[in-house]
Amino acid sequence: MTKLQTEQLIARLAEGAVPVRHLSPPLYRATLWLAGFVAVVAAAVWLRGDIAESATRFSDLAVQLEFAGALLTGVTALIAAFFVSLPDRSRSWLLLPLLPLVFWLLGSTYGCYLHLIEFGPTGWAIGESGACLRFILGISLPASIALYFALRRSSPLEPIAPLAAGGLGVAGLAAAALQFFHPFAITFLDLGVHILAVGIVIGALTLFGRRGLAPRG
User: Fold this and answer.
1) 3-state SS of 147-205?
2) By the 8 A CB rule, do 70 and 175 touch?
3) Do the beta carbons of residue 170 and residue 209 sit within 8 Å?
4) What's CA 77's distance to the chain center, in Å?
5) Tens of pLDDT, residues 195-211
6) Which end of the chain, N or C, is more open, meaning fewer C-beta atoms within 10 Å of its C-beta?
């Protein structure tokens, strides 16, 4: 190809070029997504939640620990998902939600232990596990779809990591929202169902989202 032909090719390509819209910083995008989620949950609590009962429940230390752990896990995991969706960001962001996740599990276990001490063998019984499972999955499904489209704009080279972190974040936030509609203590079997729900959300988002987020050649 001659120099003239090369210049003509460049000119033709430049004529059809469309300006690339730069992505906003990942922390900004995560904040916007979280703000939307909080707004929807706040509206649901206002319309359907028992605010007086929730205020009574949140006077319990075990509930405070469980809620704080779930909320921090959700927020940090979502932030990590937006960061690792970019190819130039360190995978060490995936470590961000680990400490809150441990705190969440310990807080939940502490609440189950107190319930077991107070009620004896009935503390091992299944409480409202089915309702909790439906709530977490019901909240997580539309939130996961919204997160998928938010992460899709990044076109991550390795989609599994941001999707898994995002799934953990969505499940954590759903579990935190559950506290406003969950006027009873959980048992150890209930906790197992909560963990199962988190695993389902992570697995589903990773499984069904990775093809759409995979780089398109």
Assistant:
1) HHHHHHCCCCCCCHHHHHHHHHHHHHHHHHHHHHHCCCCCCHHHHHHHHHHHHHHHHHH
2) yes
3) no
4) 6
5) 888 899 999 888 888 77
6) C
Residue 2 and residue 6: Cα distance in Å, rounded? 6
Please tell me the distance from the alpha carbon of residue 23 to that of residue 48, in angstroms, as a whole number.
Answer: 36
In three state form, how does the secondary structure of 48-90 look? HCCHHHHHHHCCCHHHHHHHHHHHHHHHHHHHHHHHHCCCCCC
Cα–Cα distance for residue pair 67/75, rounded to 1 Å: 12
Instruction: Tell me the whole-structure pTM to 2 decimals.
Output: 0.81
Determine the residue type at 3.
K
| Number of residues that this document lists for the chain | 217
Question: Which positions ≥6 away from 179 have C-beta within 8 Å?
Answer: 54, 57, 58, 63, 66, 67, 70
